[in-house]
């Protein structure tokens, strides 16, 4: 029987570890994100690994995400675009935690017109998606990864040619939770979906003035807070899509299902087709690529 190994996606807000044995996930552990962990990142990881080590030996650990950020577990840096899978894998970093060899994957960086951009964690999903769907590694394709900072990625023959970041999710969180636009929780009419459709319908309007409808409609039309939140979401996603080039291209979406569904609706209204790729399957596949490369490189 082969020794189990551990794969992990360590983001700013959450740690997700997967124990893999015989090609299947045999255990899962969650933990605090890099941004919320009490104590050192190595101590947090050692604590989680200790729970599995008490049940049996582990071979190795492979991590992506903010584990490789400066001041986190180890600084893994960024592989510059255009970046193939091999370019990315060459830049991985190594350390030892709880007596186990740990590999931490780098992010990707690019510059468009001299403007810097970075990603950390999404690249593992991208290369994992290419492994799961080899047809995406041929020709030109667009992948979008909705989230706090949505990434729009241009692929050419399996390499990440360039990408852009849209902090749409962060703006939505700030506007819906920390501004006056949605107001206090109180009775009102309309659902989140109703508001989202209204936001999409206003996609041709200047977004800065359109946002204020979230507040005015509560005051004058008795709309609910959820309706206003939906409006903000629809407006921000519609503005994101409107600013992107190549509106005729199909889009592969990787992300949390509820958020991906919103992007699917917005893309459909703008006449674009989308396909959904399972985010967890993609990150596991990407981490397995890195583990395979590490085993191959061992003397």
Overall description:
It holds the Pfam family DGOK. This is 2-dehydro-3-deoxygalactonokinase. GO terms for molecular function: 2-dehydro-3-deoxygalactonokinase activity. InterPro entries: DGOK, DGOK_C, DGOK_N. It comes from Croceicoccus marinus. The chain has 299 residues and is α/β, with parallel strands linked by helices. It has two domains: 1-106, 2-keto-3-deoxy-galactonokinase, substrate binding domain (Nucleotidyltransferase, domain 5, 2-Layer Sandwich), CATH 3.30.420.300; 121-299, Nucleotidyltransferase, domain 5, CATH 3.30.420.310. Helix content is 38%, strand content 29%. It has ten helices and 14 strands. The chain has helices at 41-53, 85-90, 122-132, 168-178, 192-201, 207-210, 213-221, 225-243, 257-269, 279-297; strands at residues 4-10, 14-21, 24-32, 58-65, 78-80, 93-97, 100-104, 107-112, 115-119, 140-145, 150-156, 159-166, 251-255, 274-278. A six-stranded mixed β-sheet has the order 3-2-1-4-7-6, with helices on both faces. Strands 12-11-10-13-14 form a five-stranded mixed β-sheet, with helices on both faces. A hairpin with a 2-residue loop joins strand 8 and strand 9. Helix 8 (225-243) packs across helix 9 (257-269). The radius of gyration is 21 Å and the shape is globular. The two termini are 23 Å apart.
Unreliable spans are: none
Helix content: 25-40%
How much strand? 25-35%
Q: Using the alpha-carbon principal axes, give the shape.
A: globular
* Overall average pLDDT: 94
The assigned structural class equals alpha/beta
- Alpha carbon gap, first and last residue: 23 Å
Which architecture of the largest domain would the CATH scheme give at its second level? 2-Layer Sandwich
Any idea how many domains?
2
Major sheet details:
6 strands, mixed
CATH superfamily of the largest domain: 2-keto-3-deoxy-galactonokinase, C-terminal domain
Question: Tally the helices: what do you get?
Answer: 10
CATH topology of the largest domain: Nucleotidyltransferase, domain 5
* Topology pattern, helix = H, strand = E: EEEHEEHEEEEHEEEHHHHHEHEH
Radius of gyration, rounded? 21 Å
In total, how many beta strands?
Answer: 14
Write out the strand line-up for the largest beta sheet, numbering strands in chain order.
Answer: 3-2-1-4-7-6
């Amino acid at each position: 029987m082969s020794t189990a190994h551990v794969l992990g996606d360590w983001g700013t807000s959450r740690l997700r570890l997967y124990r893999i044995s015989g090609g299947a996930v045999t255990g899962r552990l969650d933990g605090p994100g890099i941004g919320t962990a009490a104590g050192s990142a190595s101590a947090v990881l050692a604590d989680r690994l200790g729970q599995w080590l008490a049940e049996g030996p582990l071979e190795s650990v492979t991590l992506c995400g903010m584990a490789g950020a400066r001041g986190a577990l180890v600084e893994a840096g960024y592989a510059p675009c255009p970046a193939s899978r091999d370019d990315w894998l060459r830049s991985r970093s190594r350390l030892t935690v709880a007596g186990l060899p740990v590999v931490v994957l780098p992010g990707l960086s690019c510059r468009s017109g001299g403007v810097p951009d970075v990603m950390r964690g999404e690249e593992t999903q991208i290369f994992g998606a290419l492994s799961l769907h080899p047809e995406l590694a041929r020709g030109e394709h667009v992948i979008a990864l909705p989230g706090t900072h949505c990434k729009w990625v241009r692929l050419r023959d399996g390499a990440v040619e360039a990408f852009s970041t849209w902090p749409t999710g962060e703006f939505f969180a700030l506007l819906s939770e920390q501004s006056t636009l949605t107001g206090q929780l109180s009775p009102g009419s309309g659902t989140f979906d109703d508001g989202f459709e209204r936001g999409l319908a206003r996609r041709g309007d200047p977004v800065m003035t359109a946002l204020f409808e979230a507040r005015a409609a509560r005051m004058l039309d008795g709309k609910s807070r959820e309706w206003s939140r939906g409006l903000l979401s629809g407006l921000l996603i519609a503005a994101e899509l409107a600013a992107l080039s190549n509106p005729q291209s199909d889009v592969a979406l990787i992300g949390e299902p509820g958020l991906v569904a919103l992007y699917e609706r917005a893309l459909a209204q703008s006449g674009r087709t989308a396909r959904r790729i399972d985010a967890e399957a993609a990150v596991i596949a990407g981490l397995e690529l890195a583990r395979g490369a590490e085993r191959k490189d061992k003397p």
